[in-house]
Design brief:
Blueprint: H1 2-12, E1 19-30, E2 36-47, E3 50-55, E4 64-68, E5 74-86, E6 89-96, H2 101-104
Antiparallel strand pairs: 1-2, 1-4, 2-3, 3-6, 4-5, 5-6
Length: 115
C-alpha cells in the first residue's frame, strides 16, 4: 500500500506532461548492491524533468545515475520511485538533478505546454 500511495503522490506532483515515447539510453551508476555498472536501458514516458527507465538491475531510491541519450549528451538523474518489476525488468521514475535549459532539451523533443 505504501508504494501505491507514493506513486499517487508522485503523480500529483508531476511538473510537466509525459510523452509516451521509448528511446534507447546508456545508464551508469551503482545498483542496490553498490556494484558499479554501465549498460543499455530504455527510457519511456519522457518529460522535461525526467522519464521512466527500464533496465534489468535493481536500483536504490534516492541514488543518482548518469543518463546518456542517443546523441551522446549526458545528464545526472535521481531515482525517485520504483514503478514496477516484472520478469527481471525494473522500471523506475527518474528526475534530472539539474533543472535548466540543458535538461529541458535533453530528449531532443518539444513538449506541449502545460495548461
Amino acid at each position: 500500500m505504501a508504494t501505491l500511495s507514493l506513486n499517487r503522490s508522485a503523480l500529483s506532483k508531476r511538473r510537466s506532461p509525459r510523452i509516451a515515447l521509448n528511446t534507447p539510453i546508456r545508464l551508469s551508476g551503482e545498483d542496490r548492491a553498490k556494484c558499479s555498472f554501465t549498460m543499455s536501458a530504455k527510457a519511456t514516458n519522457l518529460n522535461k524533468h525526467g522519464a521512466a527507465i527500464q533496465l534489468n538491475r535493481e536500483l536504490g531510491l534516492g541514488t543518482t545515475v548518469v543518463v546518456q541519450n542517443k546523441c551522446g549528451a549526458q545528464i545526472t538523474a535521481r531515482v525517485v520511485t520504483q514503478v514496477s518489476a516484472v520478469r527481471g525488468v525494473h522500471t523506475y521514475g527518474i528526475e534530472f538533478v539539474e533543472q535548466n535549459d540543458r535538461s529541458k532539451s535533453f530528449w531532443g523533443i518539444t513538449f506541449p505546454s502545460q495548461s
